[in-house]
Amino acid sequence: MQIAVDAMGGDHAPRAAVEGAYQAAVEGTQIVLVGDRARLESELESFGERPRLLSIEHAAEVVTMEDRPTAVRKKRQSSIRVCARLVKEGRAHAVVSAGNTGAAMIAAKTVIGSIPGVDRPALAAVFPVLGGRTVVLDVGANVSAKAGHLRQFAVMGHFYAQDVLGTPAPRVGLMSVGEEEGKGTDLAREAFKVLQRTGLNFVGNVEGGDVFSGEVDVIVCDGFVGNVLLKSGESLAGYLGSLMRDALQGSWRSRLGYLLAKPAFDEYRKKTHWSEYGAVPLLGIRAGFFIAHGRSNARAIRNAIQRSVEFCEAELHRKIRHKVAELHDQEKSLLGDGWE
To answer: Based on the domain organization, do 152 and 256 belong to the same domain?
Structure first.
């Protein structure tokens, strides 16, 4: 199992990627670092002897955060495109990148390819909620989408919740501004009608206040709305953590209380901080493809690599492909030629 790590992507590249990949290699994961060989060799020198499971693949170009995502088409030797090519050639099983999300999606689709029946791959984030976890997609890969795309997101989210989170019959909700069918944008109203015909456990519209309630297991939305939800949730979790730390460090009694409660705070951080979950999968691609936070540190990269290994070991991309085909066949048999 070899993971291709885009060492040149992210705010702290290449240091964070190199350190995170080094940790993963020491722990037993086979890694290929992709980027400027001279810079990567220099970074690795500070860690001493290179792990035998870690190698370097040279990439002469970089798609920066300031570049338009389409720059990846011209920069054929960019680190993210080389990562995708390694997977396409069978030299790696998955990609981890903290770089330009749009460029990563284009590289994934054009080089590796999408699963048949999936027009728009989607980024799926798992939110901690009351009583469990909820899958939210898309959280940034598709700023705009059509009703048919949201249908595909629902199918992939349904499967992900079943196979990864162990939810037997995932309840699927559509993000809108009201519970009633007629509420929301033109897209939301059209998507509501489409999702009613999927055969999934579609429970209707959900609102922002339902995101963390645990009332649904999958929330479907376009990438603009999903990214706002994700970033707002991350910010709120950090803010609440800071408030609690400040409150508990005001006096010697509260500091003592903080020390006693530290295990609970550590558990809170594991459930809510983005560096702990590492990255989110781009579902609908023929291989594992994980997008990490642009501000990822070494810990986040190491955790992202672990998520990608788990994804590959479970062969989730193959299971998603089979599930998409299976559900499409079921819908076609129920709805006839007009199912699409």
So the answer is: yes
CA angle, 286 then 92 then 310, to 5°: 70
Burial environment of residue 263 by CB neighbours within 10 A (0 to 12, 13 to 18, 19 or more) = exposed
Residues 238, 152, single domain; the answer is yes
For residues 268 and 233, what is the distance between their CA atoms, to the nearest angstrom? 14
Q: Please report, for the domain that includes residue 146, its CATH number.
A: 3.40.718.10
Residue 340 neighbours by CB distance under 10 Å:
10
Residues, the chain, total? Answer: 340
Domain presence at residue 321 = no
State how far the Cα of 102 lies from the Cα of 149, in Å rounded to an integer. Answer: 17
Q: In terms of residue numbers, what domain contains 53?
A: 1-118+284-314
Residue ending a domain, among 275, 299, 322, is 275
Alpha-carbon distance of 118 to 108, in angstroms, equals 13
Residuewise pLDDT in 10s, the chain (340 residues):
899 999 999 999 999 999 999 999 999 999 999 999 999 999 999 988 889 999 999 999 999 999 999 999 999 999 999 999 999 999 999 999 999 988 999 999 999 999 888 888 999 998 888 878 899 998 988 888 899 899 989 988 988 888 878 888 999 999 998 888 878 888 999 999 989 888 889 999 999 888 888 899 999 999 999 989 888 877 776 666 676 667 666 666 666 666 666 665 566 555 555 555 668 899 999 999 999 988 899 999 999 999 899 888 878 778 778 777 776 666 566 555 544 4
Q: Give the whole-angstrom CA distance, residue 288 versus residue 251.
A: 49
Residues 100 and 35 in one domain: yes
Q: Is 60 within 8 Å of 32 (Cβ atoms)?
A: no
User: pTM value?
Assistant: 0.83
